[in-house]
Amino acid sequence: MTDINDHSLSALKSRRANRDRGFDDEPRVKAASDSDLIGMAEMLFFAYRDFISDPDTDLSALGFGRAHHRVLHFVNRHPGLRVADLLDILKITKQSLGRVLKQLIDQGYIAQEAGQADRRERLLYPTERGRALAERLITPQLERIARALQAAGANGDQAVRDFLQTMVGSSERARVADLIAHGRERNAKRWTPS
Amino acid sequence: MTDINDHSLSALKSRRANRDRGFDDEPRVKAASDSDLIGMAEMLFFAYRDFISDPDTDLSALGFGRAHHRVLHFVNRHPGLRVADLLDILKITKQSLGRVLKQLIDQGYIAQEAGQADRRERLLYPTERGRALAERLITPQLERIARALQAAGANGDQAVRDFLQTMVGSSERARVADLIAHGRERNAKRWTPS
DNA sequence: AAAATAAGTCAACATGACTGACATAAACGA
DNA sequence: TCGTTTATGTCAGTCATGTTGACTTATTTT
Q: Which of A86, A149, B84, B99 is the most buried (most CB within 10 A)?
């Protein structure tokens, strides 16, 4: 995977200066807020790409991928989660989940047991091994977020939280907020930015 | 795709209340900032999922997918982009790009021409058709973002921008900022939240 | 007892990414 | 001038993760 080199972006700039004359039909100062929106969209794309890439090496070393991470994460956050709950949170099919879940169970990261009130259900729990892995996978991600929140400034946390919450579709917003509010806490020491 | 029903989340809550006794080794008030970080991570996951889902129906109707959208978007933002530039921005292989790009070219959304300074290069331009499509695909996404920025409050824009910029890995940050700063503006009317 | 439900499995397919190899045209540098 | 390097394109195969459809078993509900 090659680096972006300065040459290529500089070339992009000078090339743009020469070629955009025919495309701009309004002066640059015009659409500042539109530019902000597109900029935000692009930043979100790049930000998320880096965020989800953090655990990849660890995952790959275990023969796992991002789907495994997601499953493990939410089971760890909500021990006792039913399969149907997980399907609903992740918005994937049971076939898709089944493949990944089976691997996590077979390899000892997740345990399952039949429900007591309803024996059809399968309740999912992280094993100690699973909790340790979930912790290891999320740590770099949380470091990234903590760093970014620091950059957001004194009241930035709230703004970012409001932004992200509102980015979630209105029909899901309350449910997502509820899910997040009731997730099991980490046992790790409190992380502080270095 | 079934809805999350209130029953299932309430069951989750009461089940947690009964089952977490054995897992919590510290009172809930303890890890507030860790909980914030994990909450942010989860919100980012859900937010991004909704954000990238916005154009899916339109894309699917054309027999396209998200990869097509990404390619079209960046070509539209940077007319005259070289293939190598695109590879670098998207961080994918040329084989991966080739498949999608060929379809966009074949179907008239992107035009390409050899460079003048270096005839080996292929410079990519959106056609009128491509620009219209790029506009159509991104509009709901920008609406989502504008809405979310409004929720972020008076100075929220800056906090969110700083957050997202810092979420991008430090080695890429300046380049991403530069790329965004030099993107071609939209020609659409300014969007205002309803 | 019949119908509905939770989960599990089989199978095939799609999207979008990867690796490796090879080819052609163009540019570069000795 | 010529050998080397570079930009792009293509072929081929593989993989991760998602989808659809169908079917099964055990359990719960009506």
A: A149
Listed by range, residues with Cβ under 7 angstroms from strand D are A 63-68, 70, 91-93, 95-96, 99-100, 117-120; B 82-84, 87, 94-95, 98, 101-102, 112, 118, 120-122
Please name which of A59, A161, A28, A106 lies closest in space to residue B36, comparing C-alpha atoms. Answer: A161
ipTM surpassing 0.90, yes or no? Answer: no
Measured distance CA(B81)–CA(B70) in Å, rounded: 13
Tokens 């929106």 appear where?
A: A37
Protein residue nearest nucleotide C10, by CA to C1': A95
pLDDT in tens, chain B (194 residues): 222 333 344 444 444 444 433 333 333 333 346 678 999 999 999 999 999 999 999 999 999 999 999 999 999 999 999 999 999 999 999 999 999 999 999 999 999 999 999 999 999 999 999 999 999 999 999 999 999 999 999 889 999 999 999 999 999 999 999 999 999 887 544 333 32
Contact A170, B11 (CB under 8 A): no
